[in-house]
Specification:
Layout lengths: L14 H6 L2 H7 L15 H8 L3 H20 L5 H17 L5 H19 L5 H24 L3 H18 L2 H17 L3 H11 L8 H15 L3 H17 L14 H14 L3 H17 L5 H17 L3 H12 L8 H17 L4 H15 L2 H7 L7
Helix pairs in contact: 5-6, 5-7, 6-7, 7-8, 7-9, 8-9, 9-10, 9-11, 10-11, 11-12, 11-13, 12-13, 13-14, 13-15, 14-15, 15-16, 15-17, 16-18, 17-18
Length: 392
């Protein structure tokens, strides 16, 4: 700039600039290149130091000043430990609230918190703080993946899952890795990519984890095997879920949707037993799941709905249409914003089985109509009919 304006470098600085400059930079003003020397448009402080060739004591002092300036930058952080603790607390709250709240509302809150974490990661912080931010970002993207799947948007769920996996790798956190793989297994399952769902679940079990993620992964593997008609593999995976439960020694870090409580495990067992042709075992597992749900501090409406659907399917398998209707009553009473894609999908399967097993009885026809009305007025159905916008 001084060359372009035919003036000296120090002519560009006022008194306030001089007060603000580090001492090392002020010293450089006395060693600047002359106007006759060639200058590079990308010249830096380092190149000026080299061209001025300080020696002896000046060189030693200048090197010390440069290190002090860098240390000042390295010591600064845009996030503190209290802020990180708050971010994780808010993530836990979202994961817990999702079990009982409006999924669309929770999706918006989760997206907002994820954006806050992403913005912080674009700044500067200590490496350990960056790892904690990636941990929070991974769980939040995992939550968005789970929610997207429950809203019937499987492609968007896959995208969130891939980003969550990147965050888990950058955080170097095995529990997060396992829960992300569990989430990706869930998405693959509802997209009917059952072999992929099994592979994700098995990859998750390779990590040394705490809490209940190992139970969840074994349940998901059993679920996918049962859809493929592999009875032996499905029942073996259920047995591994029991073994993982017995080995559990600590609580889940996040909880909520990222936890596999006993009622959730029994819900998976009921669905698997149905698919492998054991309706009596399925009914026992569903009854056990409801009893366990009654003693949990939080009743997850999605899990409870699927338990009732398993009950109804077990009754239908033995020709008890009235028993199925009674079991489905709490499900059909769910408010529209709680009618998630997995629930609607399983009800659709039940509706198909109802048509085959009841020979068009009046009771069966009425139940089928109620199920169809339920599925029409649901968040996944509304999302499918709404104009397509960019995913979050």
């Amino acid at each position: 700039m001084a060359d372009a304006m035919s003036c000296r470098v120090d002519d560009l600085l006022d008194l306030e600039d001089r007060h603000a400059l580090p001492e090392a930079d002020l010293r450089l003003l006395t060693h600047r290149p002359t106007a006759t020397e060639p200058t590079s448009p990308t010249a830096t402080l380092s190149s000026l130091v080299i061209s001025s060739e300080p020696t002896g004591r000046d060189l030693v002092r200048l090197a010390a000043d440069e290190s002090a300036t860098w240390a000042q930058w390295a010591e600064a952080s845009n996030v503190g430990d209290i802020a990180l603790e708050q971010l994780m607390a808010e993530t836990r709250t979202l994961a817990m609230d999702y079990l009982t709240s409006d999924p669309v509302l929770l999706f918006g809150r989760t997206r907002t918190l994820r954006d806050r974490v992403f913005a912080l990661l674009e700044g500067h912080q200590y490496p350990r703080q960056s790892a904690d931010l990636y941990l929070a970002a991974g769980y939040l993207c995992g939550l968005l993946a789970w929610m997207s799947s429950d809203l019937g948007q499987l492609h968007d769920a896959d995208t969130q899952g891939r980003t969550a996996w990147l965050c888990a790798e950058l955080a170097g956190h095995d529990d997060l890795r396992a829960w992300v793989l569990s989430t990706r297994s869930k998405v693959a399952f509802w997209d009917r990519r059952f072999r992929e769902a099994i592979n994700f679940a098995r990859r998750g079990t390779a990590y040394r984890t705490r809490g209940t993620v190992a139970v969840m992964l074994a349940c998901q593997e059993a679920d996918a095997w049962s859809e493929l008609g592999a009875q032996e593999e499905a029942l073996a995976a259920l047995a591994r879920a029991e073994e993982a439960r017995a080995k559990q020694t600590s609580e889940d870090d996040i909880g909520g949707i990222f936890a596999c409580q006993p009622a959730r495990q029994e819900n998976y067992a009921a669905a698997v037993q149905l698919r492998v042709g054991h309706p009596a075992d399925a009914l026992r597992a569903a009854d056990t799941a409801l009893a366990l749900l009654n003693v949990q501090p939080v009743r997850a409406y999605g899990t409870e709905a699927q338990i009732h659907i398993s009950q109804a399917a077990a009754h239908l398998a033995t020709g008890e249409v009235d028993g199925a209707r009674e079991a489905l009553a709490p499900v059909l009473a769910l408010p529209p914003d709680h009618r998630l894609a997995p629930v609607a999908h399983r009800l659709g399967e039940l509706c198909s089985g109802l048509g085959r097993s009841s020979a068009g009885s009046r009771s069966a026809v009425g139940l089928r109509q109620a199920i169809e009305a339920f599925c029409v007025d649901s968040p996944p159905r509304h999302a499918a009919l709404s104009p397509r916008e960019g995913s979050a």
